[in-house]
């Protein structure tokens, strides 16, 4: 089964907030490290003054939301969608400390049975009450004739997310089939969180915060490239690339004249709006694009670095072709690009990287950034969902790369999959392990654990893996895995774990 595009991580400030998780097939459920007493304490805790991103219940630990966009509404066919939340705590993530949200048939949209709730998930404190909220994009059209991009928000609180989502006031533009991406961060420097959302054929819009619980945003502005439309704003990320404390916007898309030509643009944020877009190019001047994008200060020089996952091989401009997919890293600087450090490509043919680059591996399809070993430098986790393992097609794996003062290379990189000793499950054709990945410090020990999804495991039912850490970073020992049924989520072919927040 082919991989369905999912969005990956973006850091809102250039300062990494780590997150992570684990999962396994339904037959491999593990004991929960979180006791009932710990769960009760977490639910009753007061909001964290730090307003951690992804902390839905305000206990000071990041949480992770797991999307199942193809979950059916009751006994009907279609993909109404569902979201499962695994709450962080002193014992880390587990199947016991969780919440399951399903999309319900309600007024306001025309096609609730095909809403794909759980797609394009992001989190931030949108209403400034001290709890992170969850925002996602729906594959829906409004019933009041006000066509536009439809976003839904579940509001955070001491007990977790609100059961019912609030539909935001529609965003102007062509909502199409909801393939445009979204991300969150302060792009105008006013101290409130904004929502940047891509319009499939027009560039995109920013919903400026704060966002109220009635679904109203403060104002809306638009962005485009060189005054013209971007044919497909496929992926976007918000992060502080220039180091001025204001979020910048990175857009991945295709050119308006050549749909095979991929591009990446940086739009520097500011109080008066975005500066003129600057194209991020390879060292040889050619355009760069991909399937995932994130921003983090990998070398700790005060500037967010742009990490692009190139999970495809078909761009005609690539010479040589990025066989099997790759990562492209453009180091940040005061004007958007470092003058001291050249951009780099990393794939499975790079020295130190496990495996061999092969067509169809899709390295870079999913992406997460976080400090996995506690050294203060963000690391990169990326999925290769179509990697062939011992002759088994599309079994999948995840690679983890270390950040450091000299940036990122293949040195010290690690690999994980269902073939790895200590990892539950067995590598099977079509599992697509690594189709989604997240990193976060869910147990509060100062290192980001890893969550990896396999959305097509068990004939599209999906499964999740949670990996812990030691002083050297992510480890396979002690990892656990489970499917949707283990936590009471819709257990049909829902593609559980197709999307993750981090």
Task: Indicate the topology.
Layout: H1 36-44, E1 64-68, E2 82-86, E3 98-102, E4 122-124, E5 133-137, E6 151-154, E7 166-167, E8 182-185, E9 194-199, E10 203-208, E11 219-223, E12 232-239, E13 248-254, E14 262-267, E15 278-279, E16 292-296, E17 305-310, E18 326-330, E19 344-346, E20 366-370, E21 379-384, E22 397-401, E23 414-416, E24 436-440, E25 449-454, H2 457-460, E26 463-470, E27 473-483, E28 499-500
Antiparallel strand pairs: 1-2, 1-28, 2-3, 4-5, 5-6, 6-7, 8-9, 9-10, 10-11, 12-13, 13-14, 14-15, 16-17, 17-18, 18-19, 20-21, 21-22, 22-23, 24-25, 25-26, 26-27
- Can you give the mean pLDDT? 83
Report the β-strand fraction as a percent range.
Answer: 25-35%
Question: What is the count of β-strands?
Answer: 28
**N-to-C order of helices and strands:** HEEEEEEEEEEEEEEEEEEEEEEEEEHEEE
| Share of residues in helices | under 10%
The rough form would be described as globular
Helix count?
2
Descriptive notes:
The chain is mainly beta and 502 residues long. Helices cover 3% and strands 28% of the residues. The chain is built from two helices and 28 strands. Strands 3-2-1-28 form a four-stranded antiparallel sheet, with no helix packed on it. A hairpin with a 2-residue loop joins β26 and β27. It is globular, with a radius of gyration of 20 Å.
């Amino acid at each position: 089964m082919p991989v369905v595009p999912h969005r990956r991580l973006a850091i809102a400030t250039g300062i990494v907030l780590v997150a992570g998780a684990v999962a396994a097939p339904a037959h491999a459920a593990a004991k929960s490290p979180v006791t009932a007493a710990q769960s009760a304490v977490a639910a009753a805790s007061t909001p964290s003054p730090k307003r951690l991103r992804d902390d839905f219940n305000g206990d000071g630990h990041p949480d992770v939301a797991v999307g199942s966009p193809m979950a059916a509404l009751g006994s009907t066919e279609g993909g109404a969608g569902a979201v499962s939340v695994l709450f962080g705590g002193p014992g880390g993530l587990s199947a016991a400390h969780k919440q399951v949200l399903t999309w319900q048939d309600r007024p306001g949209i025309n096609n609730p049975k095909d809403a794909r709730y759980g797609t394009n998930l992001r989190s931030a404190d949108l209403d400034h009450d001290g709890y992170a909220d969850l925002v996602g994009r729906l594959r829906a059209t409004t019933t009041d004739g006000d066509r536009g991009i439809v976003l839904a928000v579940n509001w955070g609180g001491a007990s977790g997310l609100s059961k019912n989502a609030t539909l935001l006031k529609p965003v102007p533009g062509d909502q199409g089939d909801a393939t445009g991406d979204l991300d969150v961060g302060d792009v105008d420097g006013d101290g409130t969180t904004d929502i940047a959302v891509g319009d499939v054929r027009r560039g995109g819009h920013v919903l400026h915060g704060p966002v109220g619980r009635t679904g109203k945003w403060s104002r809306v502005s638009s962005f485009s490239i060189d005054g013209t439309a971007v044919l497909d704003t496929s992926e976007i990320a918000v992060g502080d690339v220039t180091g001025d404390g204001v979020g910048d916007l990175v857009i991945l898309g295709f050119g308006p004249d050549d749909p095979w030509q991929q591009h990446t643009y940086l739009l520097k944020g500011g109080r008066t709006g975005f500066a003129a877009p600057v194209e991020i190019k390879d060292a040889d001047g050619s355009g760069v694009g991909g399937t995932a994008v994130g921003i983090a200060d990998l070398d700790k020089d005060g500037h967010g670095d742009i990490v692009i996952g190139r999970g495809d091989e078909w761009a005609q401009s690539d010479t040589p072709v990025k066989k099997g997919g790759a990562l492209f890293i453009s180091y940040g600087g005061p004007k958007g690009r470092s003058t001291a450090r050249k951009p780099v490509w990393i794939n499975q043919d790079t020295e130190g990287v496990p495996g061999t680059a092969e067509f169809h591996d899709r390295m870079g399809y999913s992406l997460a950034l976080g400090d996995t070993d506690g050294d203060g430098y963000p690391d990169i986790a990326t999925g290769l969902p179509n990697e062939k393992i011992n002759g088994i097609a599309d079994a999948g794996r995840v690679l983890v790369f270390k950040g450091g003062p000299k940036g990122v290379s293949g040195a010290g990189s690690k690999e994980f999959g269902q073939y790895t000793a200590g990892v539950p499950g067995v590598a099977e054709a079509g599992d697509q392990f690594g189709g989604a990945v997240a990193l976060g410090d869910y147990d509060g020990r100062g290192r980001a654990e890893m969550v990896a999804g396999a959305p097509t495991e068990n004939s599209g039912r999906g499964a999740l893996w949670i990996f812990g850490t030691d002083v050297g970073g992510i480890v396979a020992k002690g990892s656990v895995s489970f499917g949707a049924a283990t936590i009471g989520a819709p257990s049909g072919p829902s593609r559980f774990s197709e999307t993750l927040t981090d």
